[in-house]
Amino acid sequence: xxxxxxTNRRVADAAAAVxxxxxxxxxxxxxxxxADAAAAxxxxxxxxAKSLVFVVEGSNGAEPVIxxxxxxxxxxxxxxAAVAGGNRSRRATLDEVRDATGFAPGGTAVFGLARPIRIFxxxxxxxxxxxxxxxxxxxxxxxxxxxxxDRAVEPTWVEIAAD
Length: 163
Fold this sequence. Notes:
This protein is α/β, with parallel strands linked by helices. It has helices spanning 6-17, 34-41, 77-83, 94-101, 146-153; strands at residues 25-26, 48-58, 61-70, 88-91, 118-122, 131-134, 140-144, 156-158. It is globular and about 45 Å long.
């Protein structure tokens, strides 16, 4: 196994702190896209849990959130805005992603976040168990059971995928 990057170690340590032991795997060919991650893991595209950072805007200002969807689904930004209590949502800029999560785009993890952030998980993720999630860098992922994901991440389960 390839040695873990410090960012991957931060993710593993944060998961362990909430009682989840994850086995991070690094792939030199990269796991930046859902298709890349599925190919590396040898799993269906639908088993990839892609973490997208969006900014929801509303009467209370702008709030970064994470939307977690299956790799074969696209996000409906209007649905995300509605479930998050805003009137619109937009993709976060690279700087907004780093500021809100502490990770670079393409490797955004749900453990080890820079600060508390609301996480919305699409119901379509429940089609696979385990799911594979980003580990903080664009070359690392790990499998996690739906039970551990739900218990440790405590996402708000919603329907935010585009029809």
